[in-house]
Amino acid sequence: MNAPWKAGGANGREPFAAYMCDDASLDVLRPVANELGWQTERCIRGGLRSAVQSLSIAASPNILMVDLSESGDPLNDINALAEVCEPGTVVLAVGQVNDVRLYRDLLASGIHDYLLKPLSPATLRDALSQAQTAFSTPKVVDATDEKRHISTAVIGTRGGVGASTLATSLAWMFSAEDKLSTALLDLDIHFGTGALTLDLEPGRGLTDAIDNPSRIDGLFIERAMIRANDNLAILSAEASMNAPLLTDGGAFVQLQEEFRQAFEMTVIDMPRSMLVNFPQLLAEVNVVVLVTEMSLASARDCIRLLSWVKSNAPHAQVIVAANKVQAQFAEITKADFEASIERKLTLLVPYDIKGSSNAAKLGQTFAHSNRASKAGAAIRELAHLVIGSADAAEVGTATKKTLLGKFDFKAMLPKRDKSSAPAKAKVKGKVSAGGKTGR
Questions:
Q1: Which helix H or strand E contains 424, and what residues bound it?
Q2: So where does this one cross the membrane (predicted)?
């Protein structure tokens, strides 16, 4: 393969340099670098900090590979590297930590890609070829490009399973902990609890939007939404019970469009009835969180909802979260429930009545007032999974081969209880996709 750049090229910089912590990685890298026409002497023993020291007194190469294996604080060290790199340098990082949040943070800091050890020639060849393409492609900034946005719909399989509790907690964590500008849309028009949970008055914003869809624009969003904190705004309603919902759903679609322009994250608390009446609501949703309880009725409706989402929103990543879990009082064991829905439960949130009471008394979301509890930790893991699933969906849509394709997401989830043997035949006799039960 002919090398597109040689040392001392038009920009006076080396085409490539790598700083690796171990000989095994260097042994894999050097032949690949040689194939690309680069000097193998530029593959140097040393990690990210060695790269910072060297580049502080010399021009950075067009493409730079750095090893994070010996870095105690990769993100802080990457920031130090950015201060000594020339503008336009394409940086690839190498490390041993298989973590979606680290990957996302590294990309946000400007890293082109992150490769896991042990390295393989094929992986390196592919990554370096993409880096070449990225360097040679003119950097064009299009002012019309939309910023990255994640839309999450939280749907309960039954009333009372705690979907609204999880929706408000997710919105609070995205805004307060992840520092993402977040919109919370409570689509339970008559009986929604989003504003109540956040100790706010719902206002008339949502009902005004339904009555006058043509008014919905950026200014309307700014005035109609109620602020819960610097990064979180909510749109909800407490419509009169004498006022039926009369809309074709266009207002909700328009709201979602405006949210994409104004926020980085949208969380939709979506009653099941809204899916039946307005299936178009999931057209732009990235992640669907199905919230269930360990009961026969929830198992039946979980099957139906999974089938519905597969047919109507195949692009959406689905997370099935069991909430208020009390194994000793459950109608169905975890193994039986998973056998009936023919997939694993993504997450188990333990029952915590004291935590719920505490949150209500404080006028805070469950996650906010119960950060140290087991249920709070599970909800925090759910927030991480939502963002990780959205990232994976984006990568899959773009058909770009990145680190996410190598992640074992099952290994990142909480350990599962394996004490109960599968009893698929038993549950299948009770629950079917058609909703029939047998005794």
A1: helix 424-428
A2: none
Asked if pLDDT for residue 67 goes beyond 90, the answer is yes
Which domain range does residue 63 map to?
16-136
Of 383, 398, 413, the residue that ends a domain is 398
In the chain, what is the greatest distance between 2 CA atoms, to the nearest angstrom? 80
Specify the 3-state DSSP secondary structure of 227.
strand
Of the pLDDT bands very low, low, confident and very high (cuts 50, 70, 90), residue 422 is very low
Same domain, yes or no: 129 and 173: no
Q: Which of 98-102, 139-143, 191-195, 288-292 has the weakest average pLDDT?
A: 139-143
pTM: 0.59
* Cβ–Cβ < 8 Å for 258, 221: yes
Q: What is the pLDDT of residues 80-91, one digit of tens each?
A: 888 788 777 899
Q: Are residues 121 and 166 in the same domain?
A: no
Question: What's 30's domain CATH number?
Answer: 3.40.50.2300
| 175 contacts 290 by C-beta, under 8 angstroms | no
SS3 (DSSP) at 16: strand
Q: Hey, what long-range contacts does 67-70 have (CB within 8 A, 24 or more apart)?
A: 67/19, 67/20, 67/21, 67/22, 67/25, 67/93, 67/94, 67/95, 68/93, 68/94, 68/95, 68/97, 69/21, 69/22, 69/94, 69/95, 69/96, 69/117, 70/21
Share above pLDDT 70 across residues of the chain, in percent, rounded to a whole number: 84
Q: How many domains does the chain have?
A: 2
What is the rounded CA–CA span in Å between residue 379 and residue 323? 10
Angstrom distance (rounded) from CA 329 to CA 327: 6
Q: Is residue 178 part of a domain?
A: yes
- Together in a domain, 57 and 158: no
pLDDT of 341 above 90: yes
Residue 217: count of CB within 10 angstroms of its CB: 12
- Residue pair 174/267 in contact by the 8 Å Cβ criterion: yes
64 and 166 both lie in a single domain: no
Tell me: do 229 and 99 sit in the same domain. Answer: no
pLDDT band for position 101 (cuts 50, 70, 90): confident
Residue 239 and residue 110 share a domain: no
Phi, psi of 304 (to 5 degrees): -65, -40
Here the CATH number for the domain that contains residue 217 is 3.40.50.300
E strands, 166-307, where? 182-186, 226-229, 232-235, 265-269, 287-292
- Give the domain-ending residue among 81, 113, 136: 136
CA–CA dist 37, 311 (Å, integer): 49
Q: Indicate the pairing of strand 287-292 with strand 317-325.
A: parallel
